[in-house]
Write a structure and sequence with these properties.
mainly alpha, 227 residues, Rossmann fold, 2 domains, two-stranded antiparallel ribbon, three-stranded parallel β-sheet
Length: 227
């Protein structure tokens, strides 16, 4: 999975793309709410778009900041789409006072944020729009793009026991299992279809495949590992 470095932290590229999509969708939802509430004519709206843009930007940006603070995008992996949308609704409700504060600070530029009715309709429209956009996004990208890829070192008794503990989808939330790497001294007990025979070294495999975690499940009968 590709990463983007931001402030010395690595962020998954799909999360960045989804955040940008959410930002655009929320901005469009607010613009649509303003259009139907105050304008009604497209040409008139476009002529005055420069006065609406500050409110559009603040509305979308504040909502996105609160959603990030509540872990909305990461919740898709752990809680599914329903959990993600519930956190989104909570985030957008919590962001309404922030919009009011922004209007209080700069009412000349953020005039449209001063209407509670407009904020309510824009928020409801944004929630429905985000739901549709996310369903389409996950259908195109695939849910596995957001999961951590895990590689297991070992294919003996411990590895088999761990695999049996992960048979239910509930126990596999948040990650996908690449496979098991058998060790030279291990008696292989894991099914052959889940084994990974490394052509070179473990380091080369990790470089070629975006594995994020390596789990050590070696039986280690000789007690040679520092465990």
């Amino acid at each position: 999975m590709a990463h983007v470095r931001l402030f010395r932290h690595y962020i998954h590229l799909p999360f960045v793309i989804l955040g940008l999509i959410d930002l655009i969708v929320m901005g469009l939802a607010f613009a649509l709410a303003v259009f139907f509430r105050f304008f009604g004519e497209l040409e008139f709206f476009l002529d005055n778009l420069v006065f609406v843009l500050p409110s559009i930007t603040i509305f979308a940006l504040f909502n996105l900041i609160v959603m990030i603070a509540l872990g909305v995008h990461q919740s898709r992996v752990e809680e599914g789409m329903s959990g993600m949308m519930l956190r989104t609704i909570m985030a957008m409700i919590l962001a309404i006072p922030l919009h009011g504060f922004a209007y209080f600070v700069a009412d000349d530029w953020l005039w449209y944020l001063g209407s509670f009715g407009l904020l309510t309709s824009a928020t409801v429209l944004a929630i429905f729009s985000l739901g549709i956009a996310r369903v389409v996004f996950f259908a195109v990208v695939g849910k596995d793009r957001f999961k951590r890829r895990v590689l297991v070192l070992g294919a003996g008794r411990r590895a088999k026991q761990m695999f049996e503990d992960l048979t239910t989808p509930f126990n596999r939330k948040g990650f996908s299992l690449d496979g098991f790497v058998p060790m030279p001294d291990d008696t292989v007990e894991v099914d052959e279809q889940y084994l990974i025979n490394l052509p070179t070294s473990l380091h080369d495999y990790v470089l070629r495949h975006p594995v994020r975690e390596i789990v050590v499940a070696v039986d280690d009968r000789r007690r040679g590992l520092p465990m």
